[in-house]
Structure formats: structure tokens, C-alpha cells
Amino acid sequence: MKLSSLSDRDLRLEIESLLTDYAYVLDEGEIEKWPAFFTEQGLYKIVSRENFEKKLPLALWLSESRAMCEDRVTALRQASVYSPRVLRHLVTNVKILSHDGERVRAQSNFAILQTLLDGETHLFISGKYLDTIVSEGGKLVFEEKICVYDTLRIPNSVVWPV
Amino acid sequence: MKLSSLSDRDLRLEIESLLTDYAYVLDEGEIEKWPAFFTEQGLYKIVSRENFEKKLPLALWLSESRAMCEDRVTALRQASVYSPRVLRHLVTNVKILSHDGERVRAQSNFAILQTLLDGETHLFISGKYLDTIVSEGGKLVFEEKICVYDTLRIPNSVVWPV
Amino acid sequence: MKLSSLSDRDLRLEIESLLTDYAYVLDEGEIEKWPAFFTEQGLYKIVSRENFEKKLPLALWLSESRAMCEDRVTALRQASVYSPRVLRHLVTNVKILSHDGERVRAQSNFAILQTLLDGETHLFISGKYLDTIVSEGGKLVFEEKICVYDTLRIPNSVVWPV
Amino acid sequence: MTELKKFWPKEGPARVPYWVYSDPEVYQRELERIFAGPTWNYVGLEVEVPRPGDFKRTHIGEESVVLVRGKKGDLYVHLNRCTHRGLEVCRESFGNKATIQCPYHQWTYDLCGNLVGVPFRKGVLGQGGMPADFDTKNHGLTSLKVHARGGVIFASFDKNAVPFANYLGETMLKLFDRVFDGRKLTVLGYSRQLIPSNWKLMFENIKDPYHASLLHVFLVTFGLFRADQKSEIRMDSMGRHGALISRKGEQKAGEGTADMASFKADFKLKDPRLLDPVKEFPDANTVVMQTIFPNLIVQQQSNTLATRQIVPRGPNHFELVWTFFGYENDSPEMTQRRLRQANLMGPAGLVSVDDGEALCMTQDGVRAARSGAAVLELGGRDCDGADHMVTESCIRGFYKYYAEIMGFGEEA
Amino acid sequence: MTELKKFWPKEGPARVPYWVYSDPEVYQRELERIFAGPTWNYVGLEVEVPRPGDFKRTHIGEESVVLVRGKKGDLYVHLNRCTHRGLEVCRESFGNKATIQCPYHQWTYDLCGNLVGVPFRKGVLGQGGMPADFDTKNHGLTSLKVHARGGVIFASFDKNAVPFANYLGETMLKLFDRVFDGRKLTVLGYSRQLIPSNWKLMFENIKDPYHASLLHVFLVTFGLFRADQKSEIRMDSMGRHGALISRKGEQKAGEGTADMASFKADFKLKDPRLLDPVKEFPDANTVVMQTIFPNLIVQQQSNTLATRQIVPRGPNHFELVWTFFGYENDSPEMTQRRLRQANLMGPAGLVSVDDGEALCMTQDGVRAARSGAAVLELGGRDCDGADHMVTESCIRGFYKYYAEIMGFGEEA
Amino acid sequence: MTELKKFWPKEGPARVPYWVYSDPEVYQRELERIFAGPTWNYVGLEVEVPRPGDFKRTHIGEESVVLVRGKKGDLYVHLNRCTHRGLEVCRESFGNKATIQCPYHQWTYDLCGNLVGVPFRKGVLGQGGMPADFDTKNHGLTSLKVHARGGVIFASFDKNAVPFANYLGETMLKLFDRVFDGRKLTVLGYSRQLIPSNWKLMFENIKDPYHASLLHVFLVTFGLFRADQKSEIRMDSMGRHGALISRKGEQKAGEGTADMASFKADFKLKDPRLLDPVKEFPDANTVVMQTIFPNLIVQQQSNTLATRQIVPRGPNHFELVWTFFGYENDSPEMTQRRLRQANLMGPAGLVSVDDGEALCMTQDGVRAARSGAAVLELGGRDCDGADHMVTESCIRGFYKYYAEIMGFGEEA
Ligand code: FES
Ligand code: FES
Ligand code: FES
Ligand SMILES: [Fe+3]
Ligand SMILES: [Fe+3]
Ligand SMILES: [Fe+3]
Predict the structure, then answer these.
(1) Contact C110, C147 (CB under 8 A)
(2) Residue E287 has what pLDDT?
């Protein structure tokens, strides 16, 4: 797919599909497929709205490369202790912020619902995705994905990627 | 509408419309229109993620035909006692899983918000729709609709279809 | 953009974009841009489902003109006292109800998540948008926007537009 | 009844100890002594239940009750609890019914609350049924004492409650009759909100003219309510009911505005229809906010009229139910004016939003307090009415009565 | 144990004071005297833990417990709490493990609950470790008394609990064995719901034949359970366990249906497969609903079989866990029939939805009550079984026993 | 103050009775005796309020307080409660103000907390106003005792609190000064989470070297903290403060790793930048985790530095506020290193997630317990420091002091 050949509307539809595919692997627990959504040097950050607005650099999680995402996956599978949980992403309000022939900047809203051991479903966190997207090998990937979350008081832990 | 003539993207757009129409009749309380979303032998099931993953056959509700859906509607209107409630479906993340010329398999995420007598709106249940869609008489209908819900501990009762 | 030249599907996509842009200014706190989403004589109302169904005329908020929206903005910026809050709109299930060459009537579902000072994110209110949309100067605007909310017992105050 | 070891500060009503706002045992006593006590509680308007069989579900304290119009047009307020096994019988906000039937076992009550139907009372096929001495007369719905005046309906759990007119007292009655003057009312709509504060803070707020000139930029700026305007504070003899009365002035700086940081001389409305009041009451007053103990506020702010009903929901929350109304003979323009001015009031109101926030901030401020008290000294320490609004006497009056009815002794 | 000053009304079990449904101290005493007392609590089915090492996490009262199949096929129920620092060890609903290991410091227990591993017990590099007198024997998991019958597993916190057969009594045991007759069971699936009412209202509901003929239009209309059908009420000698037994009749009006407003003669199913019961038990009964104190309901409604486990969650909520099952030798058609008939039951069941709502409405009705009591006089005031279903005796029996085990004296 | 009839087990600090984690009355006493008692509570860093008028809103116990930089650079911590009617005055996390003004009636305080403005104090047009004897001096904000050291600010509700240096004691002070050595700090960012456990479990966790070698696969695997490394446990003389000190070893099996099931020899990082520590402190220690009673943890884990502030939210929850920081003269590479290593810590941290889960599981394990106690016997039953980490002495020290300050007698 060539970004330059797409109309704005088609671009939005493609990005919606990308975001759906992205959320799908997280909701389905297929986390091993998650790093492939990034470019090799892709930047992935989960940042609180507070730090984001104050321009403080701290992230809840920072990947500076696809490899760092892969390390996160390995850690989640082999090194972390946590109770079972089920996530459900609602990704809406996708908006193209800007684009040239090379890359698109898009924003979208997310709400993640979480169901823990007790079986109750709660609103876990909400926020916006700020994405920079490029086309690589015919598919769209994130060159940068900043997840800015509203939920300053996080309910316990953010175990899985956002 | 011929499924075989639709591009993937158009298919997604059509299915989004179908899901919107489907949720619309439930949110508006026009439940009499609900059975028409299924083929005559259409299968409709509400299944917990627990049973789904364990491959246990029990459904919260099972319709093996459009007629069974109609029976549910009649029961709701004439035979069931329940307090007034308002539903609000948020259906997002529509993804085509597979399709041939005949039928499409699609998945989407749902969250149902419920407002009871006290006027507070709560997240009621969330989950995913696993749909098999065919075209009948020029419109899309469900040959199979499996609602897999995350919310193992259901807040009281599931009165209306999901 | 000419409404009359758009197919149903394109219309839905355009309205989705409009609703995304609308929610964007509210989520980002760019409330000064909000009145421009209405025609000069545009009608904007936030109405409870209770009043709406009983056909009682009271609105939680009523703008009979773009100017009245602007007055609301001025009041919010200069005259009102309220604690900081962050909103997150989830707008889904966009459905064209009717249209002629001049105007489109569309419905969509909304859920607004709110994060207050304590940093917890709550479902604030949900409901449906009932919009009448026209094209003015090449862009879509609301001739009428009725926000019918389900949440009869509002959690404290509705400070920002819905 | 638990024994409450709570004592009022020795400064009397010039202090309000913070525990009144969040102590759960104090709250339980309020439900018992105030809402279920010898008080008259607002339940609705006659026009909400115009025809026989019409009903409205509402709350007094935390108890669910049903207001019903009887066959002959008479009014009843029943406890919304089946006498069989306690089910909340009525589960709709409004409706019309010939009888009141509980869904669980279909015990049926007539509109007056008498038990008139008990399925299988005589048994089935000669077996079972109620005992011979079961007397339906002993199992009717609990009915409250009811009083209607000027189209407004009140109820009391206490059969010995003093007559409503005496309860209000002459001064308050006159102000009440000013709005509810016999003209038929029209409901324009409802708003309902859950405010995260103790219910008494709502009463304080409406009895508090001090804040209006300072908190509400909108009121101050447009001269709708301001400390330098002609105004009065009135109370009944016990201090429990009160009224703030004021006359609109111009949007200009006056003496006193020096203290009013809220005054924004350059704020002009782009659509002036929002503020287009017309005089409609015989007197010159443009605002009369009346508080009727323990659960009603009657609001006349220019041409926007509303009852605000207070439903406590635990010590830290209350529900506020706004019923906006007009008069049956209002012209369409007048109705539209009322609806427009309603933009100032309610959960999204340009003015009321400030109050909702102030109440929330107050509760947040006092909730964790292990000691301390609010200070009410503006205008002195008395509990008398005044011909100005630079006083907190109306709040002091409220707490003087409150401490009495709650039976709080004074600190040693 | 707090001192509870609660007294039962002098009318005895013909009254249930409303405070039993929402008082937090009463609830605490229930957890102590009932769920952790000399009772047998349902924990699961043998078929849920078929192989050694299989476990299931569940709850008795509010305590988390783990049902485990030992190496030799024996059954254990352990308190799900690490004896080191209290962590809830097992955090999965089902699984298989060779040992039970706590993640925090990896104390390890064998399937019988013995502490078999304590990391660093001997120290590291000669430093630290557990004291010489630390004896792992004193730190095993707390294990409950266990009894299995007919493939159903019960546990008791009380080592002195009477044998299960005595606990049930002859009559109840026979009914229990009717369904759990030794055939191997198959789990068809689970449903879980949180019902916003006190847990005892669930028991009342199942012990209450009165409502079935009135509330459940579906049951009445299709003759599945109706007051004019042949039926029985049975109890154990103490009144704590009970059973409602009934035989399906025709969908036609009978004597008694006059009282049954719920009967809808013209309601026909478009897809009749939903109601296609076949006889499968030796006797002619088509419905047997058995309640086993304090946390189990055994449901046989036509061909839909389920255990319903009650987990209290505070005074105002309980969790209801439905385990639908069949028999291993069921034909595919029979399985499908059970699954179809399950449409009547569970959180979305055509019949059960009514009950969930009735329970919620009852809790809403009684929660704010400061006094009063439910009235249980149908069929008299005794606590005996009956050969009809026009009686509330089974509920009275329950509360007679309840007042005893809770130690409530009688009102003066 | 309610009378608490709670007694500590006779085994002393080798046992922690489960009621300390969930009893609401115990919790109330903690708020009174600990957080509002003679303790020094962390409120922030000097660099968070660098200029006059800068403020930060935070909490001590459940009380909202404001840290303010005065005109002359001095520091204040005020109770965030208007002395008029109790409103929580400051509603932003950070900001800058010339004065502190309450929105409700605009009482105004200077930065030192003095009441300097009371609108309408003299009345309006000669009417109303405050009584002549109203003295603003009596109505300033409640100010706490404040102490800053090394750029870190503490406050105490108790005017008689011992000086901070004495409070910490020599050993702890030295460790504190090691990180806060006078260099100016830079805030890198905040993380905030609500952990569903009692606040004391957080302290236990950080005083517990036992779990680190077992729970944290990541730490163990990469040799960041492991039982077989050189390490120390240090406490102040009363046991309330503590420190775990350790030196990084290699990622290889050692003696002791036999017990460490968590060691994963084959886990290699694909992007090794995550673990690229450089030595930056004079000593050889690579980890120092210090707990300062009652609400602060100072974290130095390789190059990631943070304060963790504990805010209790009822017995079953606490908020944990992480402030990650560096030094002003850090190179960009060092800053990036700190940010990268922050991936191990915080609500999504590779290591901290384990702790959040362990705390949650512990609370779930003990909440329903009606009796029982945690067992703390690793390393003996004393409360002394040690030159290894195979001991729970640091937790025992904490509970020894806790039982004292809470006034719990011993079980008979
Ligand atoms: S509870 Fe109302 S009829 Fe039985
Ligand atoms: S708490 Fe279980 S091993 Fe320590
Ligand atoms: S409450 Fe702060 S000024 Fe009145
Ligand atoms: Fe006000
Ligand atoms: Fe039933
Ligand atoms: Fe740890």
C-alpha cells in the first residue's frame, strides 16, 4: 500500500483497520504478534496526560525499538506474576492530523475495559492514541505510537500493552 | 447486495452498517424488529468467555432459529417481569476474519451500557460479536451470531438480547 | 461538499468525520472552536431521555443560535467555577436516518468518560446524538443537534458541552 | 436507635461541627428524626398526577414512596413496600393504574392503599391459603399524612405533624403562596443530578446570600443577584425555613463591587435572549429562593420557576430533582423565556454549576476532618431576618433548629 | 463477635424482620455461625476435578477455598490462604498442579495441604533462614472437612459437623439421590451473576411455591409449574433444607387459574423445540427444586439440571453460580434438549429473569426500612411439609432454623 | 476515639494479626495516631515548588494539604480547608498563586496561611458584615510543621514532633543523604496508581528482601537483586524506618539459586539498552530501597531514582505516587538511561507489576479472615539489622513500632 496514493477518507479507513488489528491481538491475548506492529526503530510510549502536558519525559512504559517490545513480551510470558485478566479495547474517533506521502499522523480515542478474576468488567483506562504511521512492505505500521492516558490514578497495574 | 462483489473495505463498511442497525433496534426498544436480522435457521447464542474457551456448550441464551428469537420477543413482551431499563450499545473494532463469495466471518467489540430505574449509567457487559453474515434478499443478515461476553459475573439479569 | 452528490456510505463516512472533529475540540479543551460546528441559527440541546420521551420541552442546556453557544463558551471561560476535568468521547454506531439533497438526519451513540481531580476515570453520561446536518461553505455543520442522554441521575454537573 | 455521643460547639449556631456532614450515625438519626419525623416533605405537584389512578414514584429520605391520585381525585402517599414480603411495588417514575399490584405474588391494593386482592387466599382445590383469621385490613400499604396547597403536595410520616400552614408560619406561607397562587401549573421538564455532598450543604447554599455575590460571576455581572441590591432575608420563627429575596439592579459597578472580584464589566451576551426577564409577580422582587425544611427549595429566579427536591443518599451524597414549571396560561413566548432562562439553573446551568462544584469541594474539604467546625459569623451571631444580604443568619437559624430536632446537647 | 441486640418478632417464623436482609452485623454473624459453622457447603462436582492435581477455586461464605483432587484420587478443600503472609494462593478458576505454590515467597504445599517447601529455610551462604524450631507441620494450609456423595462435593469448616447423611435427613437425602444417582455427570457450562439482594432472598424464592404460579407467566402458561398441579413441599426435620416437587399439567385453564392473572392462553411457541421435555426420572415428578442449607440449590426443571451455588457478597448482594450438567451417557439429542431448556434458567432465562428482578425489587423495598417484617402466613403458620403448593411453610421452616442458629431471642 | 479492643498475638512481631489489614476502626486509629501523629510525612521535593507562590496539592493520610513556597522562599504546608466553611480550597495538582483564595466566598489567605481578605467584612452600604470582634488572626489556615532536607520536604501535624534528623536516626539519615546529597534534583515525571491493598503491605513489601529473590524473575535473572549477593538490612533504633541494600552480581547461577525457581538462565534481552546501569554513587551498592515511616519509600535501583509516596484510601486501598527524578547536572544520556530503567518500576514496571499483584493477592487473601496472623520468622524473631537478606527482621521492626504507636496491648 502506498500512502501517497490514498485519499484522506481511504487513509482513515486503512488506519481504522490497523487500529482494529492492533487491538485484536491484545484482546485475544496474541501478544507475540504485537511487536510486529512497529517499525524496527519504532517508538512506543504509554504516557500519562499529566506528564504529557507538563512535557515531563517519563513514560509508564517506553520502547525505543521493536526489540524492546519483544523483550516486554518475553518478560510478560516468562518473568511476570499477575492474575488472569481479559481486556476489551474500544477504539473510536479516528482522526487524521496530518500526512504527507511518507507518514500519517493520526489520533484516536481508546477505552480499555478489564475483567479480572471476580468476573466484573470495569473501565480500566481511557485516553488517546497519537500515532505516526508509515507503510512498510505493503502494510501499515507504527513508527511512533504515544498512548496518552487520562486515568491518572491507575487501577493497580498496567500489565499488558495499551 | 452481492457479497462476492464487495471489496474488503466495502464489506467492512457494510457490516458496520448492519451492526449499527442491529444495535439500533435494541437501543430503541424496537425488539420486534430484532428477529429479522437472522436467517430462518440462524443461530444466535450469548456465551460466556469461560464456556467459550472451555468449549462447554451452554449458552446464556440459545436461538436455533429466527422463530426462537421471535418466541423470546413474545416472552419479553408478554411473559417476563422486569424493571425498566435503557441500553446503549457501543460497537467498535469491526474486523473481517474471513470471507468467500457466500459468507463473511467478522468480529467486533461491544460494550453495553445500562441505565436502570435509579438513573445511573453503568457498564453492563462487554465482549465480542463473532458473526457469520450472508446476503439474503439484498440485505445482510446473520447466519450465526455468537456473543462472547467477558463479564463473567453478570450484574443481575440479561433481559434484552445482547 | 455537496450533500446531494454523496452516496449513503460516503455520507456516513463524512458524518463520522464531522462527529470526530466535534468530539475532538471538546476532548482537547478547544472549546472556542465548538460554536463553529453549528449554523448561525443552529439549535443545540442537551435533553434527558425522560423529557424527550414525555415530550417535555426542558433542556439541560439550550442554544437557539451559534451566538448562544458562544455565550456559553465565554461563561465557561470567564464566569464559571469548576474543578479541572478531562473528557473522552466515544462516538459510535453512526446511522443515517434520512436525507434529501439539503439535509441529513443522523443518529449516533455517545459515551463520555470523565476524569476528575482524583485521577479516576468514570463513565460520565451516555446517550444518542440526533443530528440534522447541512453543508455550508463546503463543510458539514449542525443545523440541529439534540443530545438525548440516558443518564437521568447526572453525576454532579455537566460543565462542558456534550 | 444508637446512642450518639455528639455535642454541639459552645459557640452555638455560629459554628457547624464538621461531623454533621459525614458521620454515618448522625445520618441515620437524620433519616429517623427529620425525614421520618414531624416534618412535611415535598413529594410533587398536583399537575403531575392529574387523573384518578395517576401515580408518581419518589423518595422521602431514603424511603421510596408513591404519590397516587385516588378515584375521587383525593391524594395518597403510600410507602412503596408490599406488606407481604417487602418488595418495592412500584418501579416506574410515573404512570396510571387502576390498582397497585405487586408482581411477586400479586397482592393487590386499591389506590387508597387497602389490600383488596390476595391470590389463593382461600386455597386451591381446597388446600392451603391464608389462615381464617388473616385480615386484609391489617395489611394495607402504609400511608402517610398528605397536604396539598397551591398545587404542591407534601407528606409526613408523623400522624401528629402540625398542620402545614402552622408548619410554614405566616411569613413563609405568604412567600409560598406568592408563586403557588392558585393558577394551574405546567411541568416543563425534569433534571436529576447526584451531588457528591451532604444534603445539608444544599440548604446552606440556598440560605447563603453571601456566596451569590462572590461565587457567581454570572449573577454578579448581569446584576441578577448582588450584595448591593435591595434585598431581604426571611425565616419562620424556628429558623428551619427561610427565604432570600432580591431585586435586580443594573450591570454597573456599585458600592460593594469593590469587594466583588467576580464582577466582569466587559462580559456581554452575544445572544441577549438568554437574559430577557419580564416582571410577572405583583411585587418588585426579581428573585425569591425559599427553603422549606427538610427537602424543598422553591426557586423563582427571574422567570425561571422550579421546585428542587432533596433526596439524601448516604451522608456523602444527595440527589437533587429539579421540576421546572410554568403556569397553564403562559403565552408561548413566556414558556420559551422560562426555558431559555433555565440555562442558568440545573445540572448544566450557568449559575448552578458553580454551586454543584462548591458543594462537592466543601464535602471534599470536610470529609477527612477529625475535628473543627464551619464558622458562621457574617451579620453577627443571631438567627434573625434582615433587610440586606450581608449575613449568614439564615444558615444559623437552620442549624439552631437542626441541633434541637436532632437532640444534640452542647459541648461541656 | 459483636453483641447483637436483635430480637425476632413474637409471631415467630410467620414474620421475618426486615433487618435480616441488610444489617451488616447480622451479616457478619451469618458468615461466622452459618457459613463457617456446623454446616455442609457445596463446593463443586467430582467431574470438575477428575484427575489428580485438578483444582477448582470457589468460595464458602466470603472465604476463598480450593477444591483439590489428591494424588490418590482423594478430595481436599483448603482455605486459599498462604500460611506465610496470607496471600490468596490460587488465582485461577480451574487448573491442574502437582503442588500448590504461593508466588510471593514460593512456599510450597502438597495437594493435601502440607507445607513441603520453604525457600531459604536453611539460609543462603550460611546466613539467615528459618529458626531451628520452625516446624513446617505447623504451617500447612487450613483444610476443611470434605464429603462427596453422588458426585457432589461438600465441605465444612467445623470438624465436628454431623455426617452429611444425617445433616440432610432421610427425606432430603432421597431427593438428593434421585438426581445424583451414581451416574457420572457431565458439566455443560457455567453461568455466574451478581444479584443485588441478600442471599437469603434466593433461598426464600426457591422455597416459595406461591410466587411460581403468579410471577412466572411462562411457567404458568405452559403448565410447567402451577398451583393447581399435583405437588408437594418437603423439608428436613429442622426446616433448613427443603424441596418443591411438582408435576407438569396441560396448558389449559384449571380451577385456581382464575387467580392466575399470569395465565396467557394464547401464547404459543413458534419454535416448539424450546419445550420438548421427556420423562427421565422414575417418578412422575417433572420439577424438583431442592434447597440445601446454606449454599446450594439443586434444580431439576424438566430436563434442565443444575446446581446453583450461593456466595454471599455483603448483606446486599450475592453471587449465584449455576453449573448446568447432564449425565455422561446422555444422547446428543438429550444434551441438546438440556441446552435448549436452559433458556428458561440462568441470568437470561425466560423464568429466572423474573426471579432476579423480584429479588432486586425486594432488596430495594426493604433496604431503607427502619422497622417492619415480611408476613409468611400462606398455608398457616406451621413449618410442616404439605401435599400442595399453596403454602409458605418451607420458608417458615427456614427462618425457624435460621433464628435458632443465629441465636436471636424473641421480642419481649 | 473509639475504644479498640484489639490485642497483638503473644508471639510479638513474628506475627501480624490479619485484622490490621482491614478493620475500619484500626484504620481510623492509624489516621489519628500515625498520619496525624508525631511522624514526619513526605509531601514533595523542593524542585516541585521552585518559585515564590508555587504550590503543590497532596495528601497526608486522607487529609488534603497544600505545599507552598512563600514570598521569601520559605516553605509551608497548609491544611487544604477553608476556615470559613470547610471548602477544599486548592483543586489543582500544581500551580502558582500570589494568594490562596477560596472560590465560595473568596476568603483570601496569604502564602503563609494568614487570612488577609474577607469580602464584605465591614458590610455593604452600612449593613451586615462580620462582628466587630471577628479577628482574622484566629482564622488562618492550619499550618503544619515543615522540614526540608536535601531537597525533600516533610511535614508533621504534631507541633512537638522530634527534629527530623533525630526522627530518622543516624543510620537512616546517612542513607537518605546518599541520594539527596545536595545536588539539585530534576523531576522526570509522575506515575500514580491505586493499589487494592492496605497501605502497610506496601511497606512490608519494600522491607522484605525475601520476596525479591523469588517473586521477581526479572531481578533474579539479571542479577539485579538476589539472595546470594552481598547485601545488608538496616533500620533505625525504633524499627520504623528501614533499608535494603544490595550489590548487583552476574547473571549466573550461584549457591542459593537452587532455591530460586525464578532464575531463567536463557532469558536474554533483545534490546540490551534496558539494562545498562552505570555506577553513580560513591559506594559499591547498586540498590538501596529505603522506607521512611509512615509514607515514603526512596528508591535507588541502579540508575532509576524515585520517591514513592503512600496515601491510604480506606483500609483496603492506597494510592502510590511515584516521582521519578534525576540530578540537574545529568547528561542527556544519563537522563535517557534513567527513563529506560524506569521500565522496571511503576504501575507498568517489569518488576513492580509483580509487587502490585502480590499486594492485591494478599489483601484478597486476608480480607475475609476472621482470625489468623502472618508469620514472620525468616532470619529469626529479632528486629535487628543484618549483613544478608535472608531475613524478615525489617518487617518485624516495623510491626514492633506499629503495635506501640497504635497502643495495642498483648493477647492474654
Ligand atoms: S411480596 Fe408482594 S405479593 Fe408477595
Ligand atoms: S505469602 Fe506465601 S510464600 Fe510468602
Ligand atoms: S467556604 Fe471558603 S470562603 Fe466561604
Ligand atoms: Fe448559588
Ligand atoms: Fe421463581
Ligand atoms: Fe518487590
Answers:
(1) yes
(2) 95
- CB of F388 within 8 A of CB of F226? no
* CA neighbor of E39 nearest in space, from E126, E159, E185, E156: E156
Residue D75 — φ and ψ, nearest 5°?
-115, 140
Placement of cell 505516587 in the chain: F321
Does the beta carbon of D141 lie inside 6 Å of ligand 1?
A: no
Check: CB of residue C150 under 8 Å from CB of residue F223.
Answer: no
- Which residues in chain A land under pLDDT 50? none
Mean pLDDT across chain D:
95
E92:A81 CB<8 A: no
Q: What pLDDT does residue D1 have? A: 43
Write the pLDDT tens digit of every residue in B14-24: 999 999 999 99
The three cell numbers of residue C77 are 471561560
Three-state secondary structure call for residue F394: helix
pLDDT at D412: 76
What cell was used for F82?
477553608
- Reported ipTM: the value is 0.97
For residue B147, give the 3-state DSSP assignment: strand
Q: Cα distance from A83 to chain E (closest Cα, Å)?
A: 6
- Alpha carbon of F364: minimum distance to chain E alpha carbons (Å): 6
Residue by residue, pLDDT tens for chain B (162 residues) are 678 888 889 999 999 999 999 999 999 999 999 999 999 999 999 999 999 999 999 999 999 999 999 999 999 999 899 999 999 999 999 999 999 989 999 999 999 999 999 999 999 999 999 999 999 999 999 999 999 999 999 999 999 999
CA distance linking residue C140 with residue C1, whole number of Å: 8
Q: What is the least distance, in Å, from the CA of A117 to any CA of chain B?
A: 9
CA distance F6 to F316: 19
Within 10 angstroms of residue E319's Cβ, the number of other Cβ atoms is 19
Protein residue whose Cα sits closest to atom 4 of ligand 3: F105
DSSP characters over E275-297 = S-----SSSS-SEEEEEETTTEE
The answer to whether residues E333 and E280 touch, using CB atoms and an 8 Å cutoff, is no
> Residue holding cell 472556542?
C32
Going by C-alpha positions, the residue among D172, D330, D322, D163 that lies closest to residue D237 is D172
Q: Which residue on chain F is closest to C80 by alpha carbon? A: F103
C-alpha cell at B87: 441500553
Nearest to D304 by CA among D321, D282, D319, D287: D287
Grid coordinates representing A78 are: 516468562
Please check whether residue C91 touches B, CB under 8 A.
no
Which residue is it, cell 395518597?
A: D76
Look at residues D114, D129, D2, D9 and name the one whose alpha carbon lies nearest to residue D403.
Answer: D9
- Please determine, for residue D249, whether its predicted confidence score (pLDDT) is greater than 80: no
Residues with CB under 6 A from ligand 3: F 82, 84-85, 87, 102, 104-107
A162: Cα separation from own chain's centroid: 5
pLDDT of residue F305: 98
Q: What is the pLDDT of residue F251?
A: 57
Q: What is the mean pLDDT of the segment spanning E204-216?
A: 94
Low-confidence ranges of chain F (pLDDT < 70): 1-3, 250-258
Ligand 2 and E187: CB distance under 6 A? no
Residue reference for cell 497532596: F58
Q: Are E346 and D61 contacting, i.e. CB atoms less than 8 angstroms apart? A: no
| Host H or E run for residue B127 | strand B121-136
For residues D81 and D62, give the distance between their C-alpha atoms in angstroms, rounded to a whole number. 13
Which of A92, D351, D360, A109 shows the shortest CA–CA distance to C116? Answer: D360
Is pLDDT larger for residue E63 or for residue D252?
A: E63
Residue D176's SS3 state is helix
Chain-centroid distance of CA D45 in Å reads 13
Of B81, B83, B119, the CB nearest to D192: B119
Contacts of D181 (CB under 8 A, 6+ apart): D150
